[in-house]
Protein backbone atom coordinates (compact mmCIF):
# COMPACT_ATOMS: atom_id res chain seq x y z
CA UNK A 1 0.00 0.00 0.00
CA UNK A 2 1.36 3.45 -0.83
CA UNK A 3 1.77 5.94 1.97
CA UNK A 4 -1.02 8.46 1.54
CA UNK A 5 -1.13 11.94 2.98
CA UNK A 6 -4.85 12.77 3.26
CA UNK A 7 -6.25 15.04 0.59
CA UNK A 8 -8.05 18.16 1.68
CA UNK A 9 -10.00 20.77 -0.19
CA UNK A 10 -8.15 24.05 -0.72
CA UNK A 11 -10.34 25.84 1.82
CA UNK A 12 -9.60 23.20 4.45
CA UNK A 13 -5.91 23.39 3.62
CA UNK A 14 -5.96 27.11 4.24
CA UNK A 15 -7.78 26.66 7.54
CA UNK A 16 -5.22 24.05 8.57
CA UNK A 17 -2.34 26.53 8.28
CA UNK A 18 -1.16 28.11 11.55
CA UNK A 19 -3.61 30.80 12.63
CA UNK A 20 -0.91 33.12 13.94
CA UNK A 21 1.93 33.63 11.49
CA UNK A 22 5.30 35.10 12.30
CA UNK A 23 4.98 37.24 9.19
CA UNK A 24 2.53 39.81 7.91
CA UNK A 25 2.07 38.28 4.50
CA UNK A 26 -0.33 41.02 3.43
CA UNK A 27 2.34 43.64 4.14
CA UNK A 28 4.92 41.59 2.23
CA UNK A 29 2.46 41.28 -0.67
CA UNK A 30 1.91 45.04 -0.69
CA UNK A 31 5.64 45.68 -0.80
CA UNK A 32 6.38 42.99 -3.39
CA UNK A 33 4.05 44.79 -5.81
CA UNK A 34 5.28 48.27 -4.86
CA UNK A 35 8.77 47.21 -5.97
CA UNK A 36 7.66 47.27 -9.61
CA UNK A 37 7.09 51.02 -9.38
CA UNK A 38 10.78 51.38 -8.62
CA UNK A 39 11.61 49.54 -11.86
CA UNK A 40 9.41 51.59 -14.15
CA UNK A 41 10.83 53.21 -17.23
CA UNK A 42 9.05 56.03 -19.05
CA UNK A 43 6.82 58.85 -17.90
CA UNK A 44 5.59 58.06 -14.43
CA UNK A 45 1.86 58.42 -13.71
CA UNK A 46 0.32 60.68 -11.03
CA UNK A 47 -0.39 57.51 -9.02
CA UNK A 48 3.34 56.73 -8.66
CA UNK A 49 3.96 55.85 -5.00
CA UNK A 50 7.76 55.50 -4.90
CA UNK A 51 8.36 59.23 -5.09
CA UNK A 52 12.15 59.12 -5.31
CA UNK A 53 11.87 57.80 -8.87
CA UNK A 54 11.40 60.19 -11.80
CA UNK A 55 10.75 60.02 -15.53
CA UNK A 56 13.36 58.22 -17.61
CA UNK A 57 13.94 56.82 -21.08
CA UNK A 58 11.48 59.27 -22.64
CA UNK A 59 13.12 59.10 -26.06
CA UNK A 60 13.49 55.32 -26.21
CA UNK A 61 12.99 54.18 -29.79
CA UNK A 62 13.32 57.63 -31.32
CA UNK A 63 16.52 56.70 -33.14
CA UNK A 64 14.37 54.48 -35.39
CA UNK A 65 11.26 56.69 -35.26
CA UNK A 66 9.38 54.21 -33.09
CA UNK A 67 7.87 54.58 -29.63
CA UNK A 68 9.48 52.25 -27.13
CA UNK A 69 8.89 54.38 -24.06
CA UNK A 70 7.81 52.48 -20.95
CA UNK A 71 8.31 48.99 -19.63
CA UNK A 72 10.66 47.88 -16.87
CA UNK A 73 14.33 47.82 -16.08
CA UNK A 74 14.92 44.22 -15.06
CA UNK A 75 17.36 44.79 -12.20
CA UNK A 76 19.89 47.31 -11.00
CA UNK A 77 20.89 48.66 -14.41
CA UNK A 78 19.10 50.78 -16.99
CA UNK A 79 18.63 48.29 -19.82
CA UNK A 80 15.25 47.02 -20.98
CA UNK A 81 15.81 43.33 -21.78
CA UNK A 82 12.84 41.82 -23.60
CA UNK A 83 13.13 38.17 -22.56
CA UNK A 84 13.19 38.62 -18.76
CA UNK A 85 10.66 41.47 -19.01
CA UNK A 86 8.18 39.31 -20.90
CA UNK A 87 8.67 36.45 -18.43
CA UNK A 88 8.09 38.90 -15.58
CA UNK A 89 4.76 39.95 -17.08
CA UNK A 90 3.73 36.34 -17.67
CA UNK A 91 4.43 35.50 -14.03
CA UNK A 92 2.78 38.64 -12.67
CA UNK A 93 -0.29 37.85 -14.75
CA UNK A 94 -0.27 34.19 -13.64
CA UNK A 95 -0.07 35.38 -10.04
CA UNK A 96 -3.20 37.49 -10.53
CA UNK A 97 -5.00 34.74 -12.45
CA UNK A 98 -4.45 32.08 -9.78
CA UNK A 99 -4.42 34.11 -6.57
CA UNK A 100 -5.94 37.49 -7.40
CA UNK A 101 -8.99 36.63 -5.31
CA UNK A 102 -6.67 36.47 -2.31
CA UNK A 103 -5.03 39.85 -2.92
CA UNK A 104 -7.83 41.99 -1.45
CA UNK A 105 -6.95 45.66 -1.98
CA UNK A 106 -3.68 44.83 -3.72
CA UNK A 107 -5.25 43.25 -6.78
CA UNK A 108 -5.68 46.53 -8.65
CA UNK A 109 -2.05 47.42 -8.01
CA UNK A 110 -0.95 44.01 -9.24
CA UNK A 111 -3.04 44.46 -12.39
CA UNK A 112 -1.48 47.90 -12.88
CA UNK A 113 1.97 46.30 -12.64
CA UNK A 114 0.94 43.83 -15.33
CA UNK A 115 -0.42 46.60 -17.53
CA UNK A 116 2.72 48.73 -17.28
CA UNK A 117 4.58 45.84 -18.87
CA UNK A 118 1.91 44.67 -21.30
CA UNK A 119 1.49 48.21 -22.66
CA UNK A 120 5.18 48.21 -23.52
CA UNK A 121 5.11 44.72 -25.03
CA UNK A 122 2.19 45.77 -27.21
CA UNK A 123 4.28 48.62 -28.57
CA UNK A 124 7.27 46.36 -29.12
CA UNK A 125 5.13 43.93 -31.09
CA UNK A 126 3.16 46.37 -33.23
CA UNK A 127 5.30 49.40 -34.08
CA UNK A 128 6.87 47.67 -37.08
CA UNK A 129 5.60 44.88 -39.36
CA UNK A 130 7.49 41.57 -39.39
CA UNK A 131 9.57 42.59 -36.39
CA UNK A 132 9.56 42.44 -32.61
CA UNK A 133 11.62 44.93 -30.65
CA UNK A 134 13.32 43.04 -27.86
CA UNK A 135 15.82 45.36 -26.19
CA UNK A 136 16.58 48.99 -25.48
CA UNK A 137 20.17 50.05 -24.64
CA UNK A 138 23.56 48.49 -25.20
CA UNK A 139 24.27 46.62 -21.94
CA UNK A 140 28.02 46.76 -22.42
CA UNK A 141 27.94 50.56 -22.51
CA UNK A 142 25.33 50.75 -19.76
CA UNK A 143 27.37 48.57 -17.41
CA UNK A 144 30.39 50.85 -17.78
CA UNK A 145 28.38 53.56 -16.00
CA UNK A 146 26.72 53.94 -12.62
CA UNK A 147 23.88 56.38 -13.31
CA UNK A 148 20.38 57.08 -12.14
CA UNK A 149 17.79 56.18 -14.80
CA UNK A 150 16.79 59.85 -14.79
CA UNK A 151 20.35 60.86 -15.83
CA UNK A 152 21.04 58.28 -18.51
CA UNK A 153 23.32 59.52 -21.27
CA UNK A 154 24.50 56.11 -22.46
CA UNK A 155 23.45 54.86 -25.93
CA UNK A 156 19.80 53.81 -26.08
CA UNK A 157 20.26 51.56 -29.09
CA UNK A 158 17.27 49.43 -29.97
CA UNK A 159 17.34 45.81 -31.09
CA UNK A 160 14.77 43.67 -32.86
CA UNK A 161 14.23 40.18 -34.18
CA UNK A 162 12.84 39.68 -37.67
CA UNK A 163 12.06 36.90 -40.11
CA UNK A 164 15.67 37.21 -41.31
CA UNK A 165 17.15 37.34 -37.79
CA UNK A 166 14.68 35.31 -35.73
CA UNK A 167 14.15 35.08 -32.01
CA UNK A 168 11.55 32.42 -31.33
CA UNK A 169 12.41 32.33 -27.63
CA UNK A 170 11.81 36.01 -26.90
CA UNK A 171 8.89 36.20 -29.34
CA UNK A 172 7.08 33.17 -27.89
CA UNK A 173 7.64 34.46 -24.36
CA UNK A 174 6.20 37.82 -25.43
CA UNK A 175 3.19 35.96 -26.83
CA UNK A 176 2.82 34.13 -23.52
CA UNK A 177 2.96 37.41 -21.60
CA UNK A 178 0.34 39.09 -23.79
CA UNK A 179 -1.93 36.05 -23.64
CA UNK A 180 -1.66 35.75 -19.85
CA UNK A 181 -2.25 39.50 -19.46
CA UNK A 182 -5.35 39.22 -21.64
CA UNK A 183 -6.89 36.92 -19.01
CA UNK A 184 -6.18 39.46 -16.26
CA UNK A 185 -8.18 42.15 -18.09
CA UNK A 186 -10.85 39.89 -19.57
CA UNK A 187 -13.63 41.35 -17.42
CA UNK A 188 -12.28 44.74 -16.31
CA UNK A 189 -11.28 45.92 -19.81
CA UNK A 190 -12.56 43.54 -22.52
CA UNK A 191 -11.38 45.74 -25.39
CA UNK A 192 -7.82 45.87 -24.08
CA UNK A 193 -7.92 42.15 -23.33
CA UNK A 194 -8.96 41.41 -26.89
CA UNK A 195 -6.15 43.54 -28.28
CA UNK A 196 -3.64 41.73 -26.10
CA UNK A 197 -4.87 38.33 -27.22
CA UNK A 198 -4.96 39.17 -30.91
CA UNK A 199 -1.42 40.54 -30.73
CA UNK A 200 -0.30 37.45 -28.81
CA UNK A 201 -1.59 35.23 -31.62
CA UNK A 202 0.33 37.20 -34.25
CA UNK A 203 3.54 37.22 -32.24
CA UNK A 204 3.31 33.49 -31.60
CA UNK A 205 2.77 32.82 -35.29
CA UNK A 206 5.85 34.94 -36.02
CA UNK A 207 7.87 32.98 -33.42
CA UNK A 208 6.76 29.62 -34.80
CA UNK A 209 7.14 30.38 -38.51
CA UNK A 210 10.59 31.95 -38.27
CA UNK A 211 12.41 29.70 -35.87
CA UNK A 212 15.73 30.47 -34.28
CA UNK A 213 17.24 31.72 -31.05
CA UNK A 214 17.65 35.40 -30.40
CA UNK A 215 21.00 34.55 -28.80
CA UNK A 216 22.25 33.74 -32.29
CA UNK A 217 20.73 36.82 -33.89
CA UNK A 218 21.76 39.31 -31.20
CA UNK A 219 24.58 37.53 -29.39
CA UNK A 220 26.78 40.58 -28.78
CA UNK A 221 24.12 42.43 -26.79
CA UNK A 222 22.09 39.66 -25.15
CA UNK A 223 24.98 37.40 -24.12
CA UNK A 224 26.18 36.76 -21.50
CA UNK A 225 23.42 38.80 -19.88
CA UNK A 226 20.31 36.92 -21.00
CA UNK A 227 21.45 34.22 -23.41
CA UNK A 228 18.75 31.69 -24.17
CA UNK A 229 20.68 28.71 -22.85
CA UNK A 230 17.68 26.37 -23.02
CA UNK A 231 16.97 27.16 -26.66
CA UNK A 232 13.64 28.32 -28.04
CA UNK A 233 11.63 25.07 -28.04
CA UNK A 234 10.49 25.48 -24.43
CA UNK A 235 9.14 28.96 -25.14
CA UNK A 236 7.15 27.75 -28.15
CA UNK A 237 5.36 25.14 -26.03
CA UNK A 238 4.91 27.64 -23.19
CA UNK A 239 3.50 30.25 -25.55
CA UNK A 240 1.08 27.75 -27.09
CA UNK A 241 -0.08 26.66 -23.63
CA UNK A 242 -0.87 30.24 -22.63
CA UNK A 243 -2.65 30.96 -25.90
CA UNK A 244 -4.73 27.84 -25.45
CA UNK A 245 -5.70 28.89 -21.92
CA UNK A 246 -6.45 32.48 -22.93
CA UNK A 247 -8.36 31.72 -26.12
CA UNK A 248 -9.76 28.23 -25.65
CA UNK A 249 -8.94 27.73 -29.32
CA UNK A 250 -8.57 24.06 -30.17
CA UNK A 251 -5.85 24.93 -32.68
CA UNK A 252 -3.38 25.53 -29.85
CA UNK A 253 -4.26 22.29 -28.11
CA UNK A 254 -3.66 20.47 -31.38
CA UNK A 255 -0.32 22.27 -31.69
CA UNK A 256 0.63 21.17 -28.17
CA UNK A 257 -0.30 17.55 -28.79
CA UNK A 258 1.43 17.43 -32.17
CA UNK A 259 4.62 19.25 -31.20
CA UNK A 260 5.08 18.59 -27.49
CA UNK A 261 7.43 15.65 -27.96
CA UNK A 262 9.92 17.77 -29.94
CA UNK A 263 9.51 20.91 -27.82
CA UNK A 264 10.56 19.47 -24.48
CA UNK A 265 7.42 17.81 -23.14
CA UNK A 266 9.29 14.61 -22.39
CA UNK A 267 12.29 16.28 -20.75
CA UNK A 268 12.66 16.35 -17.00
CA UNK A 269 14.25 19.61 -15.97
CA UNK A 270 13.97 20.78 -12.41
CA UNK A 271 14.33 24.54 -12.59
CA UNK A 272 11.93 27.22 -13.79
CA UNK A 273 13.21 30.64 -14.79
CA UNK A 274 13.21 33.43 -17.37
CA UNK A 275 15.24 31.06 -19.55
CA UNK A 276 13.73 27.60 -19.07
CA UNK A 277 9.95 27.24 -19.18
CA UNK A 278 9.60 23.45 -19.34
CA UNK A 279 8.45 22.83 -15.77
CA UNK A 280 6.09 25.82 -15.79
CA UNK A 281 4.50 24.55 -19.00
CA UNK A 282 3.93 21.13 -17.51
CA UNK A 283 2.25 22.57 -14.44
CA UNK A 284 0.09 24.81 -16.61
CA UNK A 285 -0.99 21.94 -18.86
CA UNK A 286 -1.57 19.63 -15.90
CA UNK A 287 -4.53 21.82 -14.98
CA UNK A 288 -6.37 20.81 -18.14
CA UNK A 289 -5.72 17.15 -17.46
CA UNK A 290 -6.56 17.24 -13.74
CA UNK A 291 -9.69 19.35 -13.98
CA UNK A 292 -11.01 18.49 -17.44
CA UNK A 293 -9.32 15.14 -18.16
CA UNK A 294 -8.19 16.39 -21.55
CA UNK A 295 -6.92 13.40 -23.47
CA UNK A 296 -3.25 13.45 -24.38
CA UNK A 297 -2.13 15.63 -21.48
CA UNK A 298 -1.47 12.98 -18.85
CA UNK A 299 2.20 13.11 -19.81
CA UNK A 300 2.41 16.64 -18.40
CA UNK A 301 1.10 15.54 -15.02
CA UNK A 302 3.57 12.65 -14.93
CA UNK A 303 6.48 14.99 -15.54
CA UNK A 304 5.12 17.58 -13.12
CA UNK A 305 5.01 14.85 -10.48
CA UNK A 306 8.64 14.02 -11.28
CA UNK A 307 9.46 17.67 -10.61
CA UNK A 308 7.54 17.66 -7.33
CA UNK A 309 9.24 14.46 -6.19
CA UNK A 310 12.63 16.02 -6.89
CA UNK A 311 11.83 18.62 -4.23
CA UNK A 312 10.41 16.40 -1.49
CA UNK A 313 13.13 15.18 0.90
CA UNK A 314 12.94 11.44 1.50
CA UNK A 315 10.87 10.69 -1.56
CA UNK A 316 12.00 8.63 -4.51
CA UNK A 317 13.33 10.98 -7.14
CA UNK A 318 14.54 13.53 -4.58
CA UNK A 319 17.50 15.43 -5.96
CA UNK A 320 17.14 19.05 -4.87
CA UNK A 321 19.86 20.76 -2.86
CA UNK A 322 18.94 22.70 0.27
CA UNK A 323 21.16 24.91 2.40
CA UNK A 324 21.70 23.98 6.07
CA UNK A 325 19.00 26.53 6.86
CA UNK A 326 16.51 24.90 4.49
CA UNK A 327 16.66 27.14 1.42
CA UNK A 328 16.33 25.54 -2.00
CA UNK A 329 19.64 26.12 -3.72
CA UNK A 330 20.29 26.02 -7.46
CA UNK A 331 22.98 28.50 -8.42
CA UNK A 332 25.41 31.00 -6.92
CA UNK A 333 24.05 33.98 -8.83
CA UNK A 334 20.59 35.27 -7.99
CA UNK A 335 19.50 31.98 -6.43
CA UNK A 336 16.26 33.40 -5.03
CA UNK A 337 14.82 33.57 -8.54
CA UNK A 338 14.59 29.77 -8.45
CA UNK A 339 13.17 29.80 -4.94
CA UNK A 340 10.31 32.19 -5.70
CA UNK A 341 9.43 30.45 -8.98
CA UNK A 342 9.45 27.06 -7.25
CA UNK A 343 7.25 28.29 -4.40
CA UNK A 344 4.77 29.66 -6.92
CA UNK A 345 4.63 26.39 -8.87
CA UNK A 346 4.16 24.36 -5.69
CA UNK A 347 1.22 26.50 -4.62
CA UNK A 348 -0.32 26.61 -8.09
CA UNK A 349 -0.05 22.85 -8.48
CA UNK A 350 -1.49 22.35 -4.99
CA UNK A 351 -4.49 24.39 -6.13
CA UNK A 352 -4.94 22.25 -9.24
CA UNK A 353 -4.63 19.05 -7.21
CA UNK A 354 -7.10 20.25 -4.58
CA UNK A 355 -9.74 21.22 -7.10
CA UNK A 356 -9.60 17.82 -8.79
CA UNK A 357 -8.96 15.38 -5.95
CA UNK A 358 -5.61 14.58 -7.49
CA UNK A 359 -2.31 13.79 -5.86
CA UNK A 360 1.37 13.31 -6.65
CA UNK A 361 2.97 9.88 -6.77
CA UNK A 362 6.56 9.62 -5.56
CA UNK A 363 7.27 5.92 -5.74
CA UNK A 364 5.46 4.30 -2.82
CA UNK A 365 4.56 7.67 -1.32
CA UNK A 366 1.56 9.70 -2.37
CA UNK A 367 2.11 13.36 -1.66
CA UNK A 368 -0.88 15.61 -1.07
CA UNK A 369 -1.47 19.26 -1.78
CA UNK A 370 -0.88 20.11 1.88
CA UNK A 371 2.71 18.88 1.60
CA UNK A 372 3.31 21.16 -1.37
CA UNK A 373 1.93 24.11 0.58
CA UNK A 374 4.22 23.34 3.51
CA UNK A 375 7.24 23.14 1.22
CA UNK A 376 6.37 26.48 -0.37
CA UNK A 377 5.74 28.13 2.99
CA UNK A 378 9.18 27.15 4.25
CA UNK A 379 10.78 28.85 1.26
CA UNK A 380 8.66 31.99 1.51
CA UNK A 381 9.30 32.26 5.25
CA UNK A 382 13.03 31.82 4.74
CA UNK A 383 13.03 34.80 2.36
CA UNK A 384 11.04 36.90 4.82
CA UNK A 385 13.40 36.24 7.72
CA UNK A 386 13.07 32.70 9.04
CA UNK A 387 16.70 31.86 8.28
CA UNK A 388 20.00 31.47 10.15
CA UNK A 389 20.97 35.12 9.55
CA UNK A 390 17.54 36.34 10.74
CA UNK A 391 17.48 38.77 7.85
CA UNK A 392 14.65 39.50 5.46
CA UNK A 393 15.78 39.30 1.86
CA UNK A 394 12.92 41.63 0.95
CA UNK A 395 14.06 45.24 1.20
CA UNK A 396 11.95 47.29 3.60
CA UNK A 397 10.29 44.27 5.20
CA UNK A 398 11.03 43.30 8.80
CA UNK A 399 13.53 44.77 11.20
CA UNK A 400 16.66 43.70 9.32
CA UNK A 401 17.08 43.67 5.55
CA UNK A 402 19.76 44.46 2.92
CA UNK A 403 20.84 48.11 3.00
CA UNK A 404 23.46 48.08 0.23
CA UNK A 405 21.39 46.93 -2.72
CA UNK A 406 23.08 46.67 -6.12
CA UNK A 407 20.79 49.16 -7.84
CA UNK A 408 21.74 52.41 -9.49
CA UNK A 409 18.61 54.41 -8.78
CA UNK A 410 18.39 53.24 -5.18
CA UNK A 411 22.06 53.82 -4.38
CA UNK A 412 22.39 57.39 -5.74
CA UNK A 413 20.54 60.31 -4.09
CA UNK A 414 17.31 61.02 -5.97
CA UNK A 415 16.90 63.93 -8.34
CA UNK A 416 14.73 65.54 -5.66
CA UNK A 417 17.52 65.31 -3.08
CA UNK A 418 20.33 66.09 -5.54
CA UNK A 419 18.90 67.83 -8.62
CA UNK A 420 22.13 68.22 -10.58
CA UNK A 421 23.17 65.77 -13.28
CA UNK A 422 25.37 62.91 -12.09
CA UNK A 423 27.52 61.65 -14.92
CA UNK A 424 28.53 58.13 -15.87
CA UNK A 425 31.78 58.07 -13.91
CA UNK A 426 30.72 60.30 -11.04
CA UNK A 427 28.14 57.75 -10.01
CA UNK A 428 30.72 55.13 -9.06
CA UNK A 429 31.39 56.89 -5.76
CA UNK A 430 27.93 55.68 -4.72
CA UNK A 431 28.54 52.13 -5.89
CA UNK A 432 31.64 51.94 -3.70
CA UNK A 433 30.20 53.86 -0.75
CA UNK A 434 29.85 52.05 2.56
CA UNK A 435 26.71 54.05 3.37
CA UNK A 436 23.26 52.47 3.04
CA UNK A 437 21.29 53.20 -0.11
CA UNK A 438 19.63 56.61 0.30
CA UNK A 439 16.46 55.46 -1.50
CA UNK A 440 14.76 52.37 -0.12
CA UNK A 441 13.70 50.10 -2.97
CA UNK A 442 10.73 48.82 -1.00
CA UNK A 443 9.72 45.24 -1.74
CA UNK A 444 12.78 44.29 -3.78
CA UNK A 445 13.94 40.72 -3.26
CA UNK A 446 17.69 40.46 -3.73
CA UNK A 447 19.69 37.58 -5.19
CA UNK A 448 20.04 35.98 -1.77
CA UNK A 449 22.47 33.89 0.28
CA UNK A 450 25.01 31.29 -0.76
CA UNK A 451 24.87 27.53 -0.30
CA UNK A 452 25.91 27.88 3.34
CA UNK A 453 23.26 30.52 4.13
CA UNK A 454 25.93 33.22 4.04
CA UNK A 455 25.02 36.67 2.79
CA UNK A 456 27.20 39.72 2.20
CA UNK A 457 25.25 42.98 2.31
CA UNK A 458 27.64 44.37 -0.25
CA UNK A 459 26.58 46.55 -3.17
CA UNK A 460 29.48 45.28 -5.29
CA UNK A 461 28.39 41.66 -4.82
CA UNK A 462 25.68 41.77 -7.46
CA UNK A 463 25.15 38.01 -7.37
CA UNK A 464 23.71 38.33 -3.86
CA UNK A 465 22.59 41.96 -3.61
CA UNK A 466 20.93 42.72 -6.95
CA UNK A 467 17.12 42.54 -7.15
CA UNK A 468 15.19 41.72 -10.30
CA UNK A 469 11.64 41.81 -11.56
CA UNK A 470 11.64 38.07 -12.27
CA UNK A 471 12.51 37.28 -8.66
CA UNK A 472 9.57 39.32 -7.42
CA UNK A 473 6.93 38.36 -9.99
CA UNK A 474 6.25 34.78 -8.83
CA UNK A 475 6.62 35.87 -5.20
CA UNK A 476 3.58 38.11 -5.70
CA UNK A 477 1.44 35.03 -6.27
CA UNK A 478 3.01 33.07 -3.40
CA UNK A 479 2.50 35.93 -0.96
CA UNK A 480 -1.08 36.39 -2.13
CA UNK A 481 -1.75 32.75 -1.32
CA UNK A 482 -0.50 33.09 2.24
CA UNK A 483 -1.97 36.55 2.76
CA UNK A 484 -5.34 35.08 1.83
CA UNK A 485 -4.75 32.07 4.09
CA UNK A 486 -4.08 34.36 7.04
CA UNK A 487 -7.51 35.97 6.65
CA UNK A 488 -9.45 32.83 5.66
From TrEMBL:
Catalytic activity from the UniProt record: Endohydrolysis of (1->4)-beta-D-glucosidic linkages in cellulose, lichenin and cereal beta-D-glucans
The EC number(s) this enzyme carries: 3.2.1.4
One BP annotation, GO: cellulose catabolic process
Pfam families, alphabetized: Glyco_hydro_9
The Glycoside hydrolase family domain, residue ranges: 25-479
InterPro entries: 6-hairpin_glycosidase_sf (IPR008928), 6hp_glycosidase-like_sf (IPR012341), Glyco_hydro_9 (IPR001701), Glyco_hydro_9_Asp/Glu_AS (IPR033126), Glyco_hydro_9_His_AS (IPR018221)
Classification via PROSITE patterns: GH9_2 (PS00592), GH9_3 (PS00698)
UniProt keyword Signal, yes or no: yes
GO MF terms, alphabetically ordered: cellulase activity
Keywords: Carbohydrate metabolism, Cellulose degradation, Glycosidase, Hydrolase, Polysaccharide degradation, Signal
Domain of life: Eukaryota
TM spans (from-to): none
Active site residues according to the UniProt entry: 406, 457, 466
Enzyme category, top tier: hydrolase
Signal peptide: 1-22
Keyword Hydrolase: yes
Family designation: Belongs to the glycosyl hydrolase 9 (cellulase E) family.
Protein name per Swiss-Prot or TrEMBL: Endoglucanase
